[in-house]
Amino acid sequence: MRYILITRRALSIGLVLILAAAFVLAGVSNQYASGTAAQAQARRLPVYCVETAEKKIAITFDAAWGAEDTAELLEILAEYDAHVTVFAVGDWVRKYPESVKAFYDAGHTIGNHSDSHKAYSELTYDELLADMEACSAAIEACTGARPRVLRAPSGDYTDDTIIAAEALGMQTVQWSVDSLDWQGLSAEEMVERVTAAAENGSIILFHNDVKNTPDALREILRILSEEGYSFVTVEELIYWENYRIDSAGRQYANAA
Predict the structure, then answer these.
(1) Which residues, other chains included, contact 4 with Cβ-Cβ below 8 Å and sequence gap of 6+?
(2) Is 219 helix (H, G, I), strand (E, B) or coil?
(3) I need a surface site. Which of 90, 113, 133, 138 has the fewest CB within 10 A?
């Protein structure tokens, strides 16, 4: 009888130990699952601005409407030795190839701004790829060069937007300073807004074919030039390798 009692006690102790180990393992498993889920839920971010000690800024234009001010914009940019990136919609490229070529031949770069300005958050990954590729093909046919940067229509991006752009060799770029020219601000209002917010590594958003943008641009470039800033393309401003992007979209170069 005693032998049987000992065995039962040992079995009871063993069962307790097994249950305790199961609870520990379950806790570890839950922690791992939570960590994995958190990583999966972390949203991919485009570049909004760049951390740099150099006094350089990227001026950008989204081009989706007309093109009547192309010559005037090019004249103003040349006056201040400013090089910009024009994010062009594919439909705009096909409609105004002479403007695209004029910007490109003057030393500016042409970025991808979708093919027909559809909301990217409503497209599947395959639809995103097809749309981006159609725009890139139109730009390459016009300039001979494929775009290296993408800006989603209206800045409406998703994780798939960034992943699809990377698959096509492009970095996704937003902006840190919005001129709000598209809201019909006066030139004076835009000048005050942009010059107050601009800093090293800023990416500034304008649109072409907007009434007050040329006058605002001329004065903004004058003021920022006097403050020692130079104006480079987005491709020249951002880091292409060995970098990180913080939660605000600021891009940093990793220590060598």
Answers:
(1) none
(2) helix
(3) 133
Domain residues of the chain, as ranges? 1-42, 49-253
Question: Residue 170: which region, alpha, beta or left (left: phi > 0; alpha: psi -120 to 50)?
Answer: beta
- Dist. CA 166–CA 159, nearest whole Å: 11
Would you say the pTM of this structure is higher than 0.90?
no
Q: How many residues does the chain have?
A: 256
Per-residue pLDDT tens digits for 34-43: 333 333 457 8
Q: Which CATH number fits domain 49-253: 3.40.50.12780, 3.90.550.10, 3.30.160.20, 3.20.20.370?
A: 3.20.20.370
What is the residue-averaged pLDDT of the chain?
Answer: 88
Burial of 197-232, coded b for 16+ CB within 10 Å and e otherwise, reads ebeebbbbbbbbbbebbbbbbbbbbeebeeeebebb
Q: What is the pLDDT of residues 124-174, one digit of tens each?
A: 999 999 999 999 999 999 999 999 999 999 999 999 999 999 999 999 999
Q: How far apart are CA 148 and CA 152, in angstroms?
A: 13
Backbone angles phi, psi at 86, to 5 degrees: -100, 115
